[in-house]
Structures are given as structure tokens and as C-alpha cells.
Amino acid sequence: MQYSHTAVMSEEVIHYLKPKSGGKFIDCTLGGGGHSSAILERISPTGELLSIDLDSTAITAAKEQTKKYKNKIFVQDSFKNIKKIAHVHKFNKINGILFDLGLSSGQLQDHSRGFSFLSQGNLDMRFGTSSSEGEEPILTAETILNSYSQQQLHEIFKKFGEEKLAQPISKKIIEFRKQHLISSPEELVEIITEVYKKYYKGKSKINPATKVFQALRIAVNDELESLAKALPDALNLLSKGGRIVVISYHSLEDKIVKEFFKLESRDCICDPQNPTCQCKHKKTLKIVTKKPIMATDQEVAENPRSRSAKLRVAERV
Q: Model-level pTM?
């Protein structure tokens, strides 16, 4: 299958990232190369770009899209390792870093990997599927569904999916797998739909399986922990005046970004009840976007995936 992905809020990304000729930038989520191409167009011929993605198919597609540009490095890895990756490739004191979080259109369209509740393949849900990506044991959505306890499943669905029916859904999964292991997206959708029919009579605006699939994907890829780890490491790579731009797609991601920016934009982070500062913390960021930037109505109409996107920007001081 050909990898296809439409970059979200490209104009806004360029506006806030401010790439100029000779600049040095990192794209932490390469995808199909849309944002990387826009950055390369503006920093060429002397600028440098380091782009990271776990998905080998994304890298292959991006190489084709950016083939006319030089001074680019593509790395297949998780952005949680940005500190190590940047050190290896001598990307220190850079001008800007971009995170476009979540699932790409190309991954969603690849039904063999089970990201979508419309999929007919395996319940995999890994962003990267190469066995050489690390020494950690392989974790897939199928593994979670067939081996985790009811309490563990409940916590994943509640925490990562904000699913109101996390308890009965997790219970139903345990009952189902006693007879037959869950091996396909269709089976999981059937389980969730059956539970929803008991509690809701009307038709839902979104597929009942949406939140559970999101929760499983986040758990499989350790998305929130990876983001929390990467943000401070990315900050330390920025030169003075360098900017960090983050596009998130759900409240859990956005909260992490918002709180990190807020924390790093303050001098003292002690308890307000303390009479004197004990932390000696000095602010490292200036928040550029007081409120998140949303996609325009026109972009949402052309690319529905952008509907939930929130863009936040901060600048190194």
C-alpha cells in the first residue's frame, strides 16, 4: 500500500517556526514529509534538517517527497530518544523543533496494522514494526487485550481513552477471551458495540469503539510518557530565540504540552505558600500562543483529521 499523509496546519507551522535559509531544525514526527518539505524549502541550500519517525514506510515516502533537497537526515527511531539522536548527528543549538503528534493518515489507512476500527487486519497498532528498533519486548494491542487483567484494561481505557464504559467493556473482553482470543479489529468492535447497546439506545455521533482504539494505541506506543520525556530534551537543544511547535490531537497530549510550557515560562515553581523560593528555577521559555491555534474551517473541510488539532508554540529565552 502506498503511504499517503496530509500535513496538518502547514502554513501555521511555518509561520510560527520561522525557518530561514541556513537554519537548523528538527522534525520529530516526519510522517509523509509534508512539514519537512516545507521547512527544507525555506532553509535550503545551506540549512540542515533532522527528521525522526518510527515508521519505515513514512521514511520511504518522505525520502521520495524531499528528494530534491540536500542537507537532510532521516532517522528511524522514537522521538523520546531525541537527545541521543541529536548528539549523534551533531544537532545542538538549533533554531526550531516540531512535534506533530498522534496517528498519521498513512498509518490509519494501512488496515493491516489495526489502527482503525474499520480495519480488517491484525490488532498491532505499533507506530514502528521493525524488530531492530530497540531491545524492549514487542507489545501490541492484541497482547494487551488477551493478557492484561480486567483492572489493567479498565485503567487503560479510562486513562488513555477517557471511556465512560471502561468497566463493562473490560469485563466483556475478559468474558469473550475465555472462549476465544481476540485477534481482529472486527471482534473488538463487536464487543464494544454490544456493551454500548446495553447503555445507550440512541445513535452515537462517533463510533463507540473510537476511544478504546485510541487508548490501546497510546498504551502500545507509550505516547504520553514519550512526549513527557522528549519535551525537556528538545528544549535543551534550542538556541536562544529558537522555537518549539507542538500539534496535539487530544486533551491528554495537549495538557502535557500546556503544563510543560507553563512550568518553563516561570522563574519560581515552588509552592505558593512558601515564603521564599527554594527551587532556584529560572524560566527557559516564553509562551508565544496564549491559546492553542486551531485549523481553519477550510482546512477542516479539506482534511477532517485537522478538526481536533491544537497548535502551541513557545520560544527559548
A: 0.89
